[in-house]
């Protein structure tokens, strides 16, 4: 990927947390956080390290339940500002998002929804203010720690990219990059892949061996979602997951979101389709002109 | 016209009979080109990836330098390598002048810019969502690098085949660094040049046919790889 693409992936304003993974970004314009709190919790004691399944914090609604261990909301945004060049695209004086449940994000195009999602995905850092994830101030962390935290969060893009491989390899990718740490074997991986495909209502017997170009748009979207569900993320972020899907596929995405939320995953969904989103989400955030309500 | 047809008929007889001189040139060509392309891929692909993937000060200048090297005249490369490998040159002690490995050094210098430029382009043109997808699936920097190389594998093979096509049909470096020594460093292209000068068209045509067959094979591979890469 070129610098050109890198620039398109990384908005202008600030220290991208992606670049942080490869070292400090040159020329980053992140402003110092005047009121930055002292280091919240050391990595050893951080709630973020614990598997979500250990946490009795999911209420299925996402309406303000605290993490039982840390006693803090999963996400805390305070005075967060994100700019593209001179333009402020997101300005959030205060926002808490609880662990567990499904949170919907609605708003007009260009309102700041995707910017918010990228912050929550730990891909970008705020230009100003503080973003805390499970009690840890993200901007103050080492690049390695940020990369570690990012492994517990995943983002489904509006137009997902499938690797030029089989469905099995796509869904197993997230597991394989974690396999060194988890010590997961081939059989466990295969079982997880099958389980993830079943979650998105794709028959493993039919789809496992298919190549990426043999899938319809709806099937590709569901395979991309399965790839994210396979490694049981703590947070699943979805950007317009039903934008180009028929009703049946959209319903299956909703079913999958409910299923993983019931298991304790925090689900945050951006969507223009309020008819689809409202029955699904326990909380709706409205993002308009960079302001967040709800 | 008759001498052309006679030459063609004799050429086909030489190939069918497995003429030792003809096939010596073929094997020497493939040996030098094979060694060279292996070195080109080993050196050029990682360098091309670095140029295509990372934004660093002077990146534009490096790209321009690589693109300029694509147009480097082969006789100039041959001259440089000759001077380096000659007895008085800094690498003269290696005794590589007028040897197949010596020719490979020159051919590698010819092929590296091709592999670098095409690899950099492939990485630059990779889907912008690829890196984001890999990161959101939990890949670290090293895993992103290898997965990106794998995703652009057909483009990398394309670069290898294109460089091989250039190397195998090159004459200036082989002539100057190899010396066109019969049974030792005489390649297809240097043999064609020599035999044509002597008026022995049959051997020239026979070797030309082999070169055309190699070119056809390479083009078929290129077409197949382009089709797969474009998917």
Can you walk through the features of this model?
Chain A is built from 11 helices and 10 strands. By secondary structure, chain A is α/β, with parallel strands linked by helices. Chain A has a single domain, classed as P-loop containing nucleotide triphosphate hydrolases (Rossmann fold). In chain A, β1 and β2 form a beta hairpin. Chain B is an all-alpha fold and 231 residues long. Helices cover 79% and strands 0% of the residues of chain B. The N and C termini of chain B lie far apart (47 Å). The mean pLDDT of chain B is 90. Classes of the chains: A alpha/beta (294), B mainly alpha (231). Chains A and B meet through α1 and β6 of A and α6 and α7 of B.
Q: What percentage of the residues of chain A does DSSP assign to strands (E)?
A: 15-25%
Q: Report the sheet with the most strands of chain B, covering strand number, pairing sense and barrel closure.
A: none
Model regions low in confidence, pLDDT < 50 over at least 5 residues of chain B: none
Order of helices and strands of chain B: HHHHHHHHHHH
Largest interface: A-B, 34 and 28 residues
- The value of Rg of chain B in angstroms is 20 Å
The SS-based structural class of chain A is alpha/beta
Rg over CA atoms of chain A: 18 Å
CATH class descriptor of chain A: Alpha Beta
* Anisotropy-based shape of chain A: globular
> How many strands appear in the DSSP assignment of chain B?
0
Mean pLDDT of chain A: 79
The biggest beta sheet of chain A reads: 6 strands, mixed
The count of strands of chain A amounts to 10
Number of helices of chain A: 11
Number of domains of chain A: 1
Number of helices of chain B: 11
Give keywords:
heterodimer; A: 294 residues; alpha/beta; Rossmann fold; 6-stranded mixed beta sheet; 4-stranded antiparallel beta sheet; 32% helix; 19% strand; globular; B: 231 residues; mainly alpha; 79% helix
């Amino acid at each position: 990927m070129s610098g050109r693409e890198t620039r398109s992936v990384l908005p202008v304003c600030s220290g991208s947390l992606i670049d942080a993974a490869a070292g400090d970004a040159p020329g980053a314009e992140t402003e110092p956080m005047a009121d930055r709190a002292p280091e919240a919790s050391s990595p050893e004691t951080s709630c973020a390290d614990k598997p979500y399944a250990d946490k009795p914090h999911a209420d299925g609604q996402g309406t303000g339940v605290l993490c039982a261990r840390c006693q803090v909301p999963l996400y805390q945004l305070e005075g967060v500002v994100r700019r593209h060049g001179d333009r402020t695209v997101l300005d959030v004086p205060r926002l808490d998002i609880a662990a567990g449940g499904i949170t919907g994000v609605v708003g007009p195009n260009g309102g700041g929804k995707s910017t918010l999602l990228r912050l929550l995905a730990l891909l970008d850092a705020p230009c100003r203010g503080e973003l805390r994830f499970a009690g840890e101030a993200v901007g103050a962390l080492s690049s390695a720690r940020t990369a570690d935290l990012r492994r517990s969060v995943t983002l489904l893009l509006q137009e997902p990219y499938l690797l030029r491989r089989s469905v099995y390899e796509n869904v197993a990718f997230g597991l394989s990059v974690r396999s060194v740490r988890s010590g997961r074997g081939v059989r466990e991986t295969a079982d997880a892949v099958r389980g993830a495909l079943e979650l998105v209502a794709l028959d493993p017997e039919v789809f496992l061996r298919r190549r990426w170009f043999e899938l319809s748009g709806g099937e590709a979207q569901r395979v991309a979602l399965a790839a994210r569900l396979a490694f049981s993320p703590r947070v699943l972020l979805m950007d317009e997951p039903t934008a180009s899907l028929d009703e049946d596929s959209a319903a299956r995405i909703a079913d999958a979101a409910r299923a993983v939320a019931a298991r304790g995953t925090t689900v945050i969904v951006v969507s223009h389709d309020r008819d689809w989103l409202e029955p699904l989400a326990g909380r709706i955030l409205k993002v308009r002109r960079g302001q967040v309500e709800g | 016209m008759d001498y052309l047809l006679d030459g063609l008929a004799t050429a086909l007889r030489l190939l069918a009979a497995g003429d030792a001189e003809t096939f010596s040139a073929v094997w020497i060509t493939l040996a030098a080109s094979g060694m060279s392309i292996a070195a080109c891929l080993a050196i050029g692909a990682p360098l091309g990836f670095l140029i295509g993937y990372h934004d660093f000060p002077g990146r534009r200048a490096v790209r321009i330098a690589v693109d300029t090297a694509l147009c480097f005249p082969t006789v100039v490369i041959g001259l440089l390598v000759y001077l380096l490998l000659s007895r008085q040159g800094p690498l003269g002690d290696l005794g590589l002048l007028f040897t197949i490995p010596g020719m490979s050094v020159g051919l590698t210098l010819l092929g590296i810019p091709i592999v670098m430029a095409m690899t950099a382009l492939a990485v630059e043109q990779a889907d912008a969502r690829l890196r984001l997808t890999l990161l959101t699936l939990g890949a670290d920097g090293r895993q992103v690098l290898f997965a990106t190389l794998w995703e652009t594998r057909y483009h990398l093979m394309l670069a290898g085949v294109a460089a091989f096509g250039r190397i195998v049909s090159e004459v200036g470096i082989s002539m100057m660094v190899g010396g066109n020594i019969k049974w030792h460093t005489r390649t297809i292209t240097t043999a064609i040049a020599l035999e044509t000068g002597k008026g022995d068209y049959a051997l020239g045509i026979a070797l030309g046919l082999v070169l055309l067959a190699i070119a056809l094979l390479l083009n078929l591979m290129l077409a197949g790889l382009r089709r797969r890469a474009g998917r």
